[in-house]
Specification:
- The structure holds 2 protein chains of 2 kinds.
- Helices cover about 35% and strands about 25% of the residues of chain A.
- Chain A is built from 9 helices and 10 strands.
- In chain B, strands 1-2 form a two-stranded antiparallel ribbon.
- In chain B, helix 5 (about 75-110) packs parallel to helix 10 (about 225-240), helix 6 (about 125-135) packs parallel to helix 13 (about 265-285) and helix 15 (about 310-330) crosses helix 16 (about 340-365).
- Classes of the chains: A alpha/beta, B mainly alpha.
Chain lengths: ~260, ~375
């Protein structure tokens, strides 16, 4: 499988000479896979995601998209290639839910027809299960609804790469599974999804590969069974292995890719 | 529910998009647009007709047509009053109002803050420094291209203050909004200090000029003044729609906007520069006029939604209409005296803004 997004030896320090938050990580995201990024609080997951998203340049190392350095991309072209959903997405005051999702189409503005945009929005809202919220005020939705709305906005971008920072964080179990089922579908379509997941059970159930971060470094990376080995998790999470739930074994039907 | 049955839902066919969902605000926007249009026409006709000398609306239309090269010349007296006094004043009110409304909408959008108005980046206070120094130093007697030194000095220091505030708040190519707002507060306080010092140094005659200037008035409207403030406002109004998409995505957050392909810092520089230009020009010719830039965009947002493609032009046109009506009130309420325009906008705009806050709080749970 080909790598669509890759970083080599990236590090990030808040200041020159400070301790690195991300410390020499090499990782690739391949076409058609769901890669979960796990690890305890403060391991550097979100920072790594922000480097891969191009929010800030790494202190060391390079991030490449389609084999080219991230900085070489024009912002709107980049936004048509990859979408990013950050933690705790906020819904601004006054917008209808539909209008929030519509904003996800803005990188395509003028490039696709109006009907095509409307269809993309509809598809995205349907997938994220927010269609019935379309004409509600976004700012009064519940936390879980806002999270799904943010997912719909990112889906409406129709990019080959999606980066999701804790997409299941404020969701109930049903919607957690629904969101990851969507991520699996996207992977089955040949897209690539990188998701930060705190729940190792979900990671084991849904991800093709899991990368576990520990103190800014990659502790393991591979298929769930390998990457989430007992001894490794006990060392990384510093809790007895019995505390760590690793999958229901109930794998979604479409999993065989 | 098992994961398998959750997945099954995704096989659903995409239903055709109902037209109402695609354009949820069409009807409201149409209504608001026609309301503003009617208000504009009414404000122009009344503004031209009413005053110390009453001029029939027919003569107003006649003069406008005649100036456009159509129809017969209207009576000379009407023509003269209109062309020398009322119409330049009206044109100035419209362009200043449009400028202030647009600047308010731009700044509220770019700072993602409903409290933003042209004052926040120090334009008004900065312009006041230039104006007060010019008045007290006696330099107002000199004029250039029909514009007084006060106007030119106010414009220059207004723009310069924005550069100062913005330059100070900028760090490593980015702007921290809270730093910017606090910088604006500090610079505002310093500017008001200078204004106070000039008030202290001024003699009686200068003091009168100074206080009229800070209260805001269009009494000194002339064609050169219109030519100064008008083009800036028109140019920015025409350029504003290009910023709409960026401002909409910015509502989601700075990083979110960047992820959607918006160059946030560039957008911010352009929007602030536009707001600085039009507000400085407006304040320079008419003094300090508050609340138009704050209230009008809020009102439009409440009535027709936060999308900037509608909000920006509607705020400009709404600001124009409201300023023209406020100026009409300012010069007719206490004939033959004039109530300063800034006083009218503050006395009407303040309570109106309170009502707006109250309404928003009870309907949407307030601003967050």
């Amino acid at each position: 499988m080909t790598a669509v997004l890759a970083c080599r030896d990236v590090a990030w320090r808040p200041r020159r000479g400070a301790d690195p938050i991300v410390d020499g990580v090499t990782l690739e995201l391949r076409a058609g896979e769901l890669l979960a990024l796990a690890g305890p609080n403060g391991a550097g997951k979100s920072t790594l995601l922000s480097l891969l998203a191009g929010e800030r340049p790494p202190s060391d190392g390079v991030v490449e998209l389609d084999g080219m350095p991230l900085a070489a991309f024009e912002p709107r072209a980049l936004a048509r290639r990859r979408a990013v959903m950050r933690q705790h997405p906020a819904s601004p005051f006054g917008f209808f839910a539909y209008e929030i999702v519509e904003l996800g189409r803005s990188p395509w503005k003028g490039l696709r027809g109006r009907t095509e945009d409307a269809e993309a929005i509809e598809r995205a809202m349907d997938r994220a299960q927010v269609s019935e919220l379309a004409l509600r005020r976004a700012s009064v939705l519940s936390g879980g609804e806002q999270a799904r709305l943010a997912l719909a906005r990112v889906l409406a971008q129709e990019t080959a790469i999606l980066m999701l920072d804790e997409p299941t964080a404020s969701l109930d179990p049903r919607h957690q599974h629904a969101v990851l089922a969507v991520a699996r579908e996207l992977a089955a379509e040949g897209r690539s999804v990188l998701a930060v997941l705190h729940d190792l059970g979900l990671a084991a159930d849904y991800a093709d590969r899991v990368a576990v971060m520990h103190r800014g470094r990659l502790a393991s990376c591979g298929p769930p069974a390998e990457a989430l080995a007992d001894a490794l998790l006990e060392e990384v999470y510093e809790v007895p292995v019995a505390y760590l739930k690793r999958g229901s074994g109930l794998r979604p039907a479409s999993f065989s890719t | 529910m098992t994961a398998t049955s959750v997945l099954a839902g995704a096989e659903r066919q995409v239903a055709p998009v109902p037209a109402a969902r695609r354009r949820p605000r069409r009807a409201r926007q149409l209504l608001v647009a026609s309301g503003i249009g009617i208000l504009l026409v009414v404000s122009v006709l009344l503004g031209a007709a009413i005053g110390a000398v009453h001029i029939p609306v027919g003569d107003v239309v006649g003069t406008l047509l005649w100036k456009a090269g159509l129809g017969d010349p209207p009576p000379a007296q009407s023509r003269e009053v209109l062309w020398q006094i009322r119409i330049p004043r009206l044109a100035l009110a419209l362009s200043i109002g449009a400028g202030l409304g647009l600047a308010g909408a731009l700044l509220q959008g770019v700072f993602r803050n409903p409290l933003a108005d042209p004052g926040i980046i120090g334009v008004s206070a900065g312009a006041a420094v230039g104006a007060s120094v010019a008045i007290v130093s006696g330099a107002e007697l000199i004029s250039m291209a029909g514009l007084g030194t006060v106007t030119l000095a106010a414009f220059t220091t207004g723009v310069a203050t924005v550069f100062l505030v913005y330059g100070f708040a900028r760090h490593e190519g980015r702007t921290e909004i809270v730093t910017l707002v606090l910088t604006g507060i500090a610079i505002n306080a310093m500017a008001l200090g200078v204004l106070g010092l000039m008030t202290f140094l001024a003699d009686d005659e200068e003091l009168r000029t100074l206080s009229f200037w800070t209260l805001g008035s269009l009494a000194g409207a002339t064609w050169p003044g219109v030519m100064f403030a008008g083009p800036a406002a028109i140019a920015c109004c025409l350029a504003a729609p290009w910023l709409a998409r960026g401002l909409d995505t910015l509502a989601l957050g700075e990083l979110e906007a960047e992820h959607l392909g918006v160059r946030v810092e560039r957008l911010r520089v352009i929007a602030v520069a536009m707001a600085a230009l039009i507000t400085s020009a407006a304040v320079a010719v008419a003094g300090m006029i508050g609340f138009v830039g704050l209230v009008v965009p809020h009102l439009v947002r409440l009535a027709a939604g936060p999308g900037h493609r509608f909000l920006l032009p509607a705020s400009a046109l709404g600001g124009a209409a409201i300023t023209a009506l406020a100026d009409l009130a300012s010069r007719t309420l206490a004939l033959p005296q004039e109530v300063p325009l800034g006083v009218v906008t503050a006395l009407v705009g303040g309570p109106f803004f309170l009502w707006l806050l109250h309404r928003t709080r009870s309907e949407h749970g307030g601003w967050r």
